[in-house]
Phosphoglycerate kinase (Natrinema salaciae), 407 residues
Amino acid sequence: MIETLDDLDVEGTTVGVRVDVNSPIDDDGTLADDARLRAHVDTLSELLDRGGRVAVLAHQGRPGGDDFVSLESHADRLSELLDRPVGYVDATFTAAAREAVSGLANGDCVVLENTRFYSEEYMEFDPERAARTHLVEGLESVLDAYVNDAFAAAHRSQPSLVGLPTVLPSYAGRVMESELDVLGSIEETGEPRVYVLGGAKVPDSIDVAWSVLEKGLADHVLTAGVVGNVFLIADGVDLGDASSDFIYDQGYWDEIDRAADLLDAYGDRIAIPRDVAVDRGDDRHELGINALPPGDEEAAMDIGESTLDYYRRILADAETVILNGPAGVFEDERFETGTRQLYSAATDIPTSIVGGGDTASALRRLGIDGFSHVSTGGGAALRMLTAESLPAVTALENAPQQPAADD
Ligand SMILES: Nc1ncnc2c1ncn2[C@@H]1O[C@H](COP(=O)(O)OP(=O)(O)OP(=O)(O)O)[C@@H](O)[C@H]1O
Ligand SMILES: O=C(O)[C@H](O)COP(=O)(O)O
């Protein structure tokens, strides 16, 4: 059983709060989009308003990436969003960090440096081993409790996610709580249940498709985006050189065989596109499957009208829809139609759940809302939507309890 902020005696308690503010970064190395920070405002405000002393822990980017930057601009933006001063220290668990945390008064907040600046935080450990990392051993002595609000990182078994809850009384923050409420009860949602798998992370989507079809969670899987293109090729369609080269260059060629195996096993429950949109003479041009392959330079960038009609008919009977990944290259307005129409149709379904970073940004860009739940998580949401456990959530379940006040 996971404890929440309702179970935490906050006043005067120094709390390490793990959030997921992993965000797009501008060329100058500062925050470009604050959506993920906004998501955590309720948890942080509540802790601060209740007299907590808050040390924020988070990662940003991956080593070697252009977005692998300091959290200083995140702290500045957080201060604006929380409407109170927020400190920042360019250390995570060393003496400077511990001094900053120990110096907090009730209602104070400090952001510690990007956890992944330390190599152990980019490794995966079992919780007991994670508890013996430098980050956990360094911070343990200055924290009274740990709150995990980083649902979007909960599929990672890293020290700040599974080590701290092994040694400290631990609680789910409000984002974590609401994500677990919605995504943890997927088996209880109404049927027929339809999974829409688009976007570009083909191996992840094929894993999800296998899992939900095997477990009987999905009545239908609708494919779109690069995922749909891989299924078309697996079904024997010649998509032309441009799309085939793209799939090959992404290292996804082996996925075609896996998609073919899925079609063999569950073809009656998998829907594949009936037409695609290509870039012809700078215009969107739709081609039915029988008119393929397209010209050598013409990649399949979106699903077409006939696919949308077909998918809308399946969705019309659905009680639950789970969507991940855009239906096309929505960043180019000629190819946003599939995403716009498919996601709009999904908002009419009684339970509609959306997950994925790019997906959320597509929805914002296209101005589509009205879903039952838009998850903050990409990979984490997908893993929960296949009814599998997340290491950081298991660590919260197994965490020690806060000693009673008179202990
Ligand atoms: N037909 C296509 N050809 C090439 N790229 C495509 C196609 N359809 C969609 N995409 C691309 O897929 C990308 C998003 O896919 P991704 O799987 O990363 O989405 P997500 O699951 O929402 O994000 P994340 O898992 O990173 O949180 C977009 O950049 C979009 O342009
Ligand atoms: O953006 C995400 O999906 C999470 O922050 C996890 O990031 P990671 O995939 O780099 O571990």
